[in-house]
């Protein structure tokens, strides 16, 4: 626990994008999504795990993801989420928005 | 439901998350405790996140609801006529239900406004009545002062006990925390600052107020010290009495008052909401039990010592943790043991009273016994009206749904969920119902006022504490929502059915004919018929009662009572006082004759007659005759025919030979065809004889519902003087206009005597049939309302069908059909619906009418005349409702209709 992991609060709304991205590759339950984000970011991104659940509710209400009762790889009952067609469209939109934003920041920082 | 399921799922998800995280950390080598707390730390605030998640879809729910309500209001606004009609009819239905329910709440469900009413119990006992009414009732009860009523299996039930029983039961300290007694002191003359008025008095034991947990608004309440023979006489006023008589509670404290000319000191005032323990009355004055020794003198002294004199009513508060069943089990043997010691003979021991405990939270049950059945019947009627209203609106919505199909179909095809649209439609109908409910509350305010007025029938001491409290309003709101769902559901499901898709293609609203609509109209007709039959039965009952032959005059008579004994007058001066007053009343201009009797004819049965013992003609005992002590010119004033001899006159003085007038039926029964004039009746108990001087027509007394004409013996009031008298004044014009003159004469004679029970003879008679009058009026109103609503429904569906079939009718007419034939065709369908409704409802009405049997008088529940009349009214109304659209159908221009096809 030496270094302080970077919390994902620098870019508001990016948690939604990360969740959609995770689910676009495979159906996951809540903890599975956390694990996926952590592992694929090389443990650089540590999200506040509790914030996942309000986000999941929001995404589900918007019709971008859909939860259903299923079984985890460890054989435990859990709500498994999958992305919907509308969700994939939304992921594209957010990815484009994100690319634009990072490009803008890189320009400001003189990196581009 | 939905929300609870989601919350549960969310909780489970979060717990799984924490468990998995902890397991992972444990696998990395942490101790289980460390792992669990670390998992929690990384998760953040669990409770907060849970609430945040819930909030997301709760917010959504409310915003969607708001959206639906807004949309619903727009739809309503665009359909003003429909919405107004729906809201108005709902308001009538819900308002009627609210009004009746608020009466039920106040009479049947409400608790006494005292501390912890649930632990109060009322002590009653029951016993079998005498097998043969003519035989003397062999029983430990030798004397009574109080009421009996019918219990289960023909038993008689009452709440009165001898004082000794109260003292015995009071010792059962482990069952009751306190036991207290009281009895109705009836009306007394209350003199405040020299002015006499009438006040109702309640005599209460010293524990009464403390046991009920009532606190005074001023001064102190009666305590055990006050309730001893010889204690300083103190009185507690009701809040309203303190305001009316003293101008406020604080002014009354320490004031001296006279109760029947005995001085009392006012020590306290009860709180405004307190009305004693009987919701049917509201005493003005509470006096310590033993002060009746002062007020009533020697008679009262007998009450305390006599173990066979039943008069004190008793309530108790159960000790904490004791149930009413346990208390009953403990006390019943104790009471049995005690009452057995009071039995004087074997016959008395054979039929001992058995103690029963009843819940006392609602106070005494006299109002409940009297009104629970009528109220349930009324509630059933208004519930039916609301049902008719709901069905009607469902029907109108169905008709309207046809025109909304296109809109709905578009929304469905754009991907809106069916559930979402049903929900939106239901929100719309519930909004409609809630608006109706809100308006209904206004109707209910008015309804409660008029119902209270109707039920009281102008009786001054009638207390109905009906009000629209939160309890009632909550029921109204629930009723509105349920109604909205009820009438909204069927149309919402129908209109979102997937097979409405073709509607989008064709855009025509003709669509398929709804199978639901005729069913709903038939249901409406059936329910209306049931209400019509009930109304018919109640109106018939009232007519029967009104046509009862009284045997005496009803109009132009003013009645009022005086009690000079309470003001200190004593025999023999008492009798001359009453006789002199009669002569003075006769001098009032416009008054043709005045008389008096110990009670009015209607109340003579239960008011204490001056002679109650055995009467004999020779060796034969007279069975079942009533006695009335009357003043001069009684028969003339009351317009009772004198069939033979003469009536009691001024010349029959106390020292002249005692006389009697008997009724025709008594004469027939005991003298046959002989002339009874000059024969004698022996009043065995007081060892006196009276001579029969006349025969009167038969008089029906005690009330209109009592069957037949009991035999009557009229004695001269001068020779058998009563304590209290009721005067009857026959005068021209409105009897009530003579009250002023009467009051002046009484004040001149003795200002301490209040004039009470002022009423016209007609009003007193009407009072006895008050319930029947209320029922006849209300049910007629309800029937008209239901019929009106059903007709609107019938009219609606017929118009709709005519519009739908305009093309077909056009073709028929083009092919030569006559207008009359078209009218007949349309009307035939209306009559089929009406006939179907009747077929269902005749058996239903026959069953329902059996339930109101006990409320009818000389009317059979299956009265064929009433059924036939209701049927004729219903069919005529149906034809009327169908005729307008039928006529419109016959005016269809074939060319125009076909062009539109």
Describe this structure in a few short sentences.
The complex is a heterodimer of chains A (112) and B (901). Chain A is an alpha+beta fold and 112 residues long.
How would you sum up this structure, described in words?
The complex is a heterodimer of chains A (112) and B (901). Chain A is of the alpha+beta class and 112 residues long. Chain A has helices at residues 14-25, 30-40, 52-61, 85-108; strands at 6-7, 28-29, 45-46, 65-71, 77-83. By secondary structure, chain B is an alpha+beta fold. Chain B is 52% helix and 16% strand. Chain B contains 27 helices and 27 strands. In chain B, strands 18, 19, 20, 21, 22, 23, 24 and 25 form an eight-stranded mixed beta sheet that branches. Mean pLDDT of chain B is 85; it is low at 507-512. At the A-B interface, α2, α3 and β5 of A face α1 and α3 of B.
- Counting helices, strands and paired strands, the structural category of chain B is alpha+beta
Q: Output the structural class of chain A.
A: alpha+beta
Q: Percent range for helical residues of chain B?
A: 40-55%
- Using the alpha-carbon principal axes, give the shape of chain A: globular
- Low-confidence sequence ranges of chain A: 1-10
Estimated radius of gyration of chain B: 36 Å
Number of helices of chain A: 4
Task: State the oligomer.
Answer: heterodimer
Mean pLDDT of chain B: 85
What portion of the residues of chain B fall into strands of 2 or more residues? Answer: 15-25%
Total beta strands of chain B: 27
Largest sheet report of chain B: 8 strands, mixed
Number of strands of chain A: 5
Q: What is this structure's SSE topology?
A:
The complex is a heterodimer of chains A (112) and B (901).
Chain A: E1 6-7, H1 14-25, E2 28-29, H2 30-40, E3 45-46, H3 52-61, E4 65-71, E5 77-83, H4 85-108
Parallel strand pairs in A: 1-3
Antiparallel strand pairs in A: 2-5, 4-5
Chain B: H1 2-27, H2 32-43, H3 46-78, H4 80-109, E1 120-127, E2 143-144, E3 148-150, E4 156-158, E5 160-161, H5 163-169, E6 176-192, E7 195-204, H6 208-212, E8 218-219, E9 234-237, H7 239-246, H8 249-252, E10 256-259, E11 262-269, E12 285-288, H9 292-296, H10 298-305, E13 309-310, E14 312-318, H11 324-341, H12 346-350, E15 354-359, H13 366-413, H14 418-456, H15 470-495, H16 502-506, H17 516-546, E16 557-563, H18 573-586, E17 591-597, E18 615-617, E19 620-621, E20 625-630, H19 634-638, E21 642-645, E22 659-663, H20 664-671, E23 680-683, E24 688-696, E25 711-716, E26 724-731, H21 739-749, E27 756-760, H22 761-768, H23 770-804, H24 806-814, H25 819-851, H26 864-890, H27 894-900
Parallel strand pairs in B: 2-13, 7-12, 9-11, 20-25, 22-24
Antiparallel strand pairs in B: 1-4, 1-14, 1-15, 3-4, 5-14, 6-7, 6-10, 6-14, 8-11, 9-12, 10-11, 16-26, 16-27, 17-26, 18-19, 18-23, 21-24, 22-25, 23-24
Helix pairs in contact in B: 1-2, 1-3, 3-14, 4-13, 4-14, 4-15, 13-15, 13-17, 13-23, 14-15, 14-23, 17-23, 17-25, 17-26, 23-26, 24-27, 25-26
């Amino acid at each position: 626990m030496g270094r302080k992991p970077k919390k994902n609060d620098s870019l508001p709304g990016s948690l939604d994008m990360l969740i959609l991205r995770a689910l676009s590759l495979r159906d996951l339950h809540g903890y599975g999504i956390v694990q996926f984000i952590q592992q694929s970011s090389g443990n650089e991104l540590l999200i506040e795990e509790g914030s996942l659940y309000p986000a999941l509710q929001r995404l589900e209400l918007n019709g971008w993801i859909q939860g259903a009762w299923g079984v985890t790889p460890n054989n435990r009952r859990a709500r498994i989420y999958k992305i919907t067609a509308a969700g994939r469209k939304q992921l594209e939109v957010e990815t484009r928005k994100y690319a634009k934003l990072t490009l803008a920041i890189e320009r400001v920082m003189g990196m581009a | 439901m939905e929300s609870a399921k989601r919350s549960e799922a969310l909780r489970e998800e979060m717990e799984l998350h924490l468990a998995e995280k902890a397991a992972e950390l444990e696998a990395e080598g942490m101790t289980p405790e460390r792992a669990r707390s670390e998992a929690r730390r990384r998760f953040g605030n669990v409770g907060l996140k849970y609430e945040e998640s819930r909030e997301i879809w709760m917010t959504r729910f409310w915003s969607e609801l708001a959206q639906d309500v807004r949309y619903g209001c727009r739809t309503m606004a665009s359909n003003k006529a429909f919405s107004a009609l729906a809201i108005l009819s709902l308001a009538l239905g819900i308002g009627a239900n609210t009004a009746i329910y608020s009466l039920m709440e106040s009479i049947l469900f409400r608790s006494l406004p005292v501390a912890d009413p649930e632990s109060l119990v009322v002590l009653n006992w029951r016993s079998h009545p005498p097998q043969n009414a003519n035989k003397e009732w062999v029983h430990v009860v030798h004397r009574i002062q109080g009421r009996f009523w019918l219990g289960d299996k023909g038993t008689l039930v009452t709440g009165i006990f001898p004082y000794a029983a109260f003292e015995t039961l009071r010792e059962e300290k482990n069952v009751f925390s306190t036991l207290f007694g009281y009895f109705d002191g009836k009306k007394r003359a209350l003199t405040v600052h020299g002015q006499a008025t009438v006040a109702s008095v309640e005599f209460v034991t010293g524990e009464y107020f403390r046991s009920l947990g009532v606190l005074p608004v001023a001064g102190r309440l009666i305590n055990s010290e006050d309730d001893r023979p010889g204690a300083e006489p103190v009185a507690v006023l009701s809040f309203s009495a303190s305001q009316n008589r003293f101008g406020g509670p604080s002014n009354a404290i320490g004031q001296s008052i006279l109760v029947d000319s005995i001085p009392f000191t006012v020590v306290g005032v009860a709180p405004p909401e307190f009305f004693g323990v009987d919701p049917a009355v509201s005493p003005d004055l509470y006096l310590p039990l033993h002060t009746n020794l002062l007020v009533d003198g020697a008679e009262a002294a007998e009450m305390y010592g006599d173990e066979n004199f039943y008069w004190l009513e008793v309530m108790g508060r159960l000790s904490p943790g004791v149930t009413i069943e346990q208390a009953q089990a403990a006390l019943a043997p104790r009471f049995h043991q005690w009452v057995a010691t009071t039995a004087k003979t074997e016959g008395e021991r054979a039929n001992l009273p058995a103690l029963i405990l009843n819940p006392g939270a609602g106070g005494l049950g006299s109002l409940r016994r009297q009104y629970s059945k009528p109220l349930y019947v009324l509630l059933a009627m208004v519930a039916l009206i609301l049902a008719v209203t709901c069905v009607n609106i469902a029907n109108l919505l169905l008709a309207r749904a046809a025109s909304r199909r296109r809109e709905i179909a578009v929304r469905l095809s754009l991907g809106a969920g069916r559930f979402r649209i049903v929900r939106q439609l239901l929100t719309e109908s519930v909004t409609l119902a809630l608006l109706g409910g809100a308006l209904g509350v206004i109707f209910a305010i008015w309804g409660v006022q008029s119902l209270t007025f109707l039920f009281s029938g102008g009786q001054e001491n009638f207390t109905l504490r009906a009000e629209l409290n939160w309890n009632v309003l909550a029921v109204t709101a629930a009723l509105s929502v349920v109604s909205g769902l009820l009438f909204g559901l069927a149309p919402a499901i129908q209109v979102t059915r997937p097979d409405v898709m073709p509607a989008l293609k064709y855009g025509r609203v003709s669509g398929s004919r709804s199978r639901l609509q005729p069913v709903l109209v038939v249901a409406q007709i059936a329910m209306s018929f049931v209400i019509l039959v009930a109304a018919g039965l109640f109106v018939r009952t009232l007519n029967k009662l009104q046509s009862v032959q009284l045997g005496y005059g009803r109009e132009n008579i003013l009645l009022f009572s005086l009690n000079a004994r309470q003001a200190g007058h004593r025999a023999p001066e008492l009798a001359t006082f009453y006789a002199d007053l009669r002569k003075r009343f006769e001098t009032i201009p416009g008054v043709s004759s005045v008389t008096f009797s110990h009670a009015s004819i209607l109340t003579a049965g239960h008011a204490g007659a001056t002679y109650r013992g055995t009467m004999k003609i020779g060796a034969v005992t007279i069975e079942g005759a009533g006695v009335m002590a009357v003043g001069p010119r009684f028969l003339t004033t009351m317009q009772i025919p004198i069939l033979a001899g003469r009536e009691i006159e001024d010349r029959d003085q106390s020292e002249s030979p005692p006389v009697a007038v008997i009724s025709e039926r008594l004469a027939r029964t005991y003298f046959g065809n002989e002339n009874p004039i000059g024969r004698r009746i022996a009043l065995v108990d007081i060892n006196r004889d009276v001579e029969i001087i006349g025969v009167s027509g038969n008089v029906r007394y005690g009330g209109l519902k009592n069957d037949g004409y009991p035999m009557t013996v009229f004695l001269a009031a001068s020779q058998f003087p009563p304590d209290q008298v009721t005067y009857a004044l026959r005068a021209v014009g409105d009897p009530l206009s003579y009250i002023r003159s009467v009051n002046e004469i009484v004040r001149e004679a003795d200002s301490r005597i209040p004039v009470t029970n002022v009423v016209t003879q007609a009003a007193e008679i009407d009072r006895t049939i008050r319930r029947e009058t209320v029922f006849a009026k209300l049910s007629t109103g309800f029937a008209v309302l239901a019929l009106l609503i059903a007709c609107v429904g019938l009219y609606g569906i017929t118009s709709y069908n005519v519009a739908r079939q305009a093309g077909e009718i056009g073709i028929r007419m083009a092919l030569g059909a006559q207008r009359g034939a078209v009218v007949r065709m349309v009307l035939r369908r209306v009559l089929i619906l009406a006939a179907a409704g009747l077929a269902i409802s005749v058996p239903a009405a026959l069953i329902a009418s059996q339930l109101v049997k006990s409320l009818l008088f000389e009317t059979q529940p299956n009265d064929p005349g009433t059924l036939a009349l209701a049927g004729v009214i219903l069919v005529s109304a149906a034809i009327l409702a169908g005729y307008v659209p039928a006529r419109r159908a016959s005016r269809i221009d074939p060319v125009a209709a076909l062009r539109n096809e």
